[in-house]
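Researcher: Here's my situation. A collaborator sent me these components and asked whether they could plausibly form a single complex. I don't have experimental data yet, so a predicted model of the whole assembly would be a useful starting point for our discussion.
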Amino acid sequence: MSKGVLVDVTRCIGCKACQTACKQWNDMPSSIPEFDNNLGHPAKTNGYTWTTVYHRVVEKDNQDVIRTTKFQCMHCLDPGCVSACFSRAFQRDPKTGAAVYHPHLCVGCRYCMLACPFNVPKYQWDKVFPLVSKCQFCFDPKGKYDRVGHGQAPACVSTCPTQALMFGEREEMLQEAWNRINSNPNYIKHVYGEKEAGGTAWMYISDVPFEELGLRADVTERPIPQYSHEFLKYTPPVIVAWGGLLSAMYFYTKRRKDVAAEKDKGFKA
Amino acid sequence: MMSAQKWSFRITPVRMLLLLLALLAAAIAVYRLVTGLGSATNLNDEWPWGLWIGFDVLTGVALAGGGYSVALIAHILHIEKFNAIARSAMLTSLLGYLLVMIGLFLDIGQWFNFWRPFVSWGYHSVLFEVFWCVSLYTTVQVLEFGEIATEKVVKPLHKFFAKAMPFLLIVGVLLPTLHQSSLGALYLTQVGKLHPLWWSPYIGLFFLMSSFFVGPAMVTVETSLAGRAYNHWIDTKILRSLQRIGFTVMLMYLALKIFDLTSRDAWQYVFAGGLESNMFILEMAVGVLIPLVIFFTAWGKTRAGLTTAGAMVAIGVIINRMNVVITGMIGYSGAGYAPSWMEWMVTIGLVAGGMLAYCFICDNFRILEHEDEQHKAA
């Protein structure tokens, strides 16, 4: 059993208290707001912002309405970043379900940024020795920034004034999501994160389509690590078979050449 | 054994230019290491991988494929007539991989941590396979070059290198088979992101096959360049029969492409128009279809025809790799990426440095003419 968070977009008022709580708890620097079209700041997560609230004007029942959506690392059950990292700088904590970044193991290749189906990992491009940056689910194995490891909710969830965020066992959050959907026809009949990328700890329910909120719609339901495994599983047999075949061919063709040379008495080095 | 001789390196205007380019690249490389990736490159959160990964690494490793394909043909299968080109092919490959290592080193953010995957095994990652194979293969190639180098320096060690050659050659074909394919397989995780013209469950196989057939093509181009520079011409017949092996693999590549596009119902994208389909058609026409036509016509029996076909195949592989890294990701990323002048200059300077090193080694070791034991290097 791992933890989960249910995001109910219909309850979010876009106050961004979660963003502030995240920055404060995790000692992240703030920046001067520069609002763009979607009223969010920053418009996307970046090297120093692990969560941000998207503001979108969407059409619902022939009316323009504003919907706000908190975005952060989804903490996949089988995370692409963990499988993509060749130095184990990403590891999933099985107890909490947090996909945690360990900076001291990071080489800085940025393959995690490509492998993440939600484009979560960001990079500190302005630094000489940049690190990857992403939500740690308020889990810190070293303890300093840990909340979830102590059984507390993440800082963002605790601070949410409208209960748009709900923290608990993932299974229970999923159950709660479907209870709300089934008891209110207003909701889209889909829990975003139930099956996306093989299932994620963070799950969303909404009354408008998820892609209009800024969430990626065409995410595969197959966990990303399986795509790599589908290839890597052939490595050991290929080493044995191809290595054996190459050795056999080497000694066979060499022997044949030597025999032919012996016959011709025309030995050539 | 050759008699002892002095080191020589003629300076010509072309070599002077190459030297300047390499020095400029070295200066920019230092600047990048001191100030960071953000100030030297146009990379950002939408484009974490750019020209250095796309060209210096993915394309560089592919173009250096001549080393393993020729080693397989000449030394594993003992087809003797190809011995004449084996050394220059393997030297180009060695230099190519050393440049790839430099390119990679410049591209990683925590470069002092480059050794980390040797001890912290992220074996679930395709990149882990790439990292280990490329490092080991570069080592193997340095040792293989040891056999050539000890003809001239530290001669007592020569017999040990000569003894180790069979093992080195076998491992030296096995490793590239693994990492050439895994470089493509890195993009398996890009499902839904990389454009369907390039994302394929067979992308690893495509990378492997194209790295194999670009080998003979590169060797042909290279012997043509070296022929002009050193007045050392390889028999056209040898080049043609080497290319025949390459083109056979290319036909299989083409067949697999057709099967792949059909099975994924992706032909619609080929003729959809727009940047992606144009670049895909360009890649296939320049790199596969036209070279095939040239090879099977009369012109393909001449040195000029073979060299032209070879050059086109090499350019086609370059376009293919850049399409995977850049063209195929534009649609998903939604943002454009153009490399900064510093990214360009480092890439150009690396190639220039490689050419200089090739010239220096050809001037001083027996690379081009080595069939004759009595040979005296010019």
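Model: Some features of this prediction you could bring to your collaborator: Chain B touches chain A through 59 residues (CB under 8 Å). Chain B is about 70% helix and 0% strand.
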